[in-house]
Amino acid sequence: MKTFYLSLLCTLCFISIGLTQSTPEADYDPEAKLVELGITLPTPPQPVANYVNGVRAGNLIFLAGKGPRYADGTEITGKLGQNISIEKGYEGARLTAINQLSVLKDMLGNLNKVKRIVKVLGMVNCDPSFVDQPKVINGFSDLMVEVFGEKGRHARAAVGMASLPRGQAVEIELVVEVYE
């Protein structure tokens, strides 16, 4: 009989652990945070070549690179260190974050299914002498933390590029872990 109760207790513990790991906390609500920030997600930008916006592999989603495109199709373009400021680059990275969130919501149906932002690759169109890529990509990272809290903190690379498609100021891709 002792063995039965011990087995039952262990089973209940594993079920409890599994439930807490497979569902978001009660106070976790990135959708509400977007409303609080006054952000309305646009229709996700469509791929401009032969690729898809994102691929899900198990509980990971790999999002293709996106840039700072407004809903009307215009983009923030330019080269950091030449004709665009760090502040404008930061704005571009933040706009790119909004675009990536729209893709993610389209794929998941609800951003509350995001378990954590895992990895970000931020590419900055810049002059070879420009060395403040992290300050630019902070526009993306800061918004991820604003929306997802600690779950928005991520590993990241912020690198300079000689050019980016259509002259866009930044391009950012990311990996996201989602609840099952």
Automatic annotation (TrEMBL):
This chain's source organism reads Maribacter algarum (ex Zhang et al. 2020)
Q: Which Pfam families match?
A: YjgF_endoribonc
Listed name of the protein: RidA family protein
For this UniProt record, the keywords arranged alphabetically read as follows: Signal
Q: Which CDD domains match?
A: YjgF_YER057c_UK114_like_1
Annotated PANTHER family: ENDORIBONUCLEASE L-PSP_CHORISMATE MUTASE-LIKE DOMAIN-CONTAINING PROTEIN, ENDORIBONUCLEASE-RELATED
Q: Which InterPro entries match?
A: Endoribo_LPSP/chorism_mut-like, RutC-like_sf
Renumbered to this chain, the signal peptide range is 1-21
Q: Does the keyword Signal apply?
A: yes
Q: Which residues form the Endoribonuclease L-PSP/chorismate mutase-like domain?
A: 31-165
